[in-house]
Amino acid sequence: MAGRIGTAKIAGVATGTSVKTLIQLIAASNHAIKIRQVSIGFHGTSATAEPIKVELKRQTDAGTMSSLTPVKGDDSCGDTLDTTAQHTATAEPTAGDILWNMPVHPQAPLIWEPPWDAPIVVGAGDRIGLAVTAGADVNCDATIIFEE
Description:
The chain has 148 residues and is mostly beta strands.
């Protein structure tokens, strides 16, 4: 069913100082998904801290992560979301194309929405990950809103 909105989110996850996938979405094998919004915020306390590289990228495998259950945007809908998710990589997935990236200051949140007429599409059975690379360890919160 087209038009179902789902949300995958994490809170208070430490970035570490090397690349870390925070959230990975896996589209169901029978349909694609569209990324509608990415938001991320860091719990930084230093005004002079180096910006953190935030990337949305295709990933070709699962890496090692914990299971994450996406939440329906409309809880009155009887349909179950088909998209699955994982979070907080301890072994990074294999990265593919970088679809979007932005430096984000550790004290400034970011909300990004791709244009509605040119969304980022994740093909059936494919994976997309939200990853960060920080110069200093800092906790963060992140959310991906998607449509299936």
